[in-house]
# Entry
Amino acid sequence: MASITTALRKYLLSESSVSSLVGDRIYPVHAVEKPARPFVTYRTTGGSGDQQLSGALVSESTRIYYEVESEDFEEAENVAIAIKNVIMRPQTKGAYYGCAIIGFELGAIESTVVPPVTGSDQRKYVSTIDFLIQHLPQ
# Structure
């Protein structure tokens, strides 16, 4: 069975509202060296499981954190909002790419400007969004 993060990456890439903005530039943990912007990285930042008295795992919850990096503030926010709109749709509940999603909760959407590094005049615009995704055990 696919991991929840891999399943959601494939799901987001299959949705034109996201892929039209980032192409296939959704990466686990770190982006490839110097990718075109905008791009998205994601990682899990926590999770838990619900068990029956017998000890059998009934469901899991995984917190997934997405970070959008762009050269434009509005573009970064638009990508984060597109990700939110895809994941928060009622029809997202169900089986996708080997993972059964049974619920989700939006954490926060935040945007910021990262100042240029020494020797550069280029700022980065970053929008972050996190979700608690409830799914069947993997």
Observations:
- The domain at 4-135 is CATH 3.30.70 (Alpha-Beta Plaits).
- The longest helix spans residues 73-87.
- Residues 18 and 83 are 6 Å apart (CA to CA).
